């Protein structure tokens, strides 16, 4: 699911400058897209930023995570402004985190883009779609629906109508996936029950059909979107008990492990245990990489064992499924609020900023996180802690974050101030005393920085 939307978003981003790459992405041919990006200069030491960015997207979709990270870093270094570096590093880190099922870090990255005054409408639309994917994967369908509504608003405002098409496809995707997972025969798939789909899929089907029809010759509907649309229809037919769609679904699945699990779930919903087991077996060796939070796969294994009468294997698999679901919820679901009002935790060494820095400089970020309340904390002290010069520290932060260490420190302090002001008793000490206790001395800097970071005055946060 993640791959489809990153591919379509990357295609829309590069369709003017790199049409051959965009066409390959829209067709779902990631190998061809990778070749086009290399040919257009993405593998050249003098390559431009768009070619490197495209090459990074294609590498990520092909599972070349280390190559993708290298291309992304090179693309970020070629940006001409701190705003561009900051937005691109958030964007890249968000998709990398989502690829690794690190949902909390991904959500932080996408939320920062939505809240960034320098972000364009397409950049915000992409970030909101990414956030919707995160919420859906965590079973938080109310938050996902809020993000999808925001994506439709942004899609209406964008010049390219395919942003609206993407929002409608993702809404349909989520509805179908929930419909399968909350089918009568899968009620023990408890992770998804709180997100039970409301009503039927007819509204989403019609909306997406209208969006497809609105595409024209200048901007045709992507083939990858049409294939996903057809695949969703087949999954629903399988969940309704139609065995004969399996062969067509297998052609859609290729070497995609996630798709094999989707098929297995639909087969179980349609009471075809043999087809579900067959699908899991086909996907077993398709992707050797270990992924976090394989909840659907663990559930399918438990359900198949139970339906085959192997109580011991079923109990063992259910226990593993339950333990992983609890661990996922504890570690990933931190702050779930509407994107425009999200208060980010102030000091989390494992959040999106840490993920965007090279390993050596993550120690510097952790040091800032541990000491940001100290009024006397300086870049010299931070640099000395990890054994580098102040200049090296400044360069590393600017190239990877689009921010200086001082700006990161200020952002962290402002996040902490906002978190306290939004709390029920947040105004107990007064705004200025709260800010001073958290390392912000200057009243004018507090108000100016707060407005820039959160698009409101500190007093407005207290009144919420």
TrEMBL record:
It comes from Telluria antibiotica. It comes from the Bacteria. TPR repeats lie at residues 49-82. SUPFAM superfamilies: TPR-like. Keywords: DNA-binding, TPR repeat, Transcription, Transcription regulation. The keyword Transport does not apply. InterPro entries: AraC_XylS_family_regulators, HTH_AraC, HTH_AraC-typ_CS, TPR-like_helical_dom_sf, TPR_rpt. This is Helix-turn-helix transcriptional regulator. Residues 362-464 form the HTH araC/xylS-type domain. Pfam families: HTH_18 (PF12833).
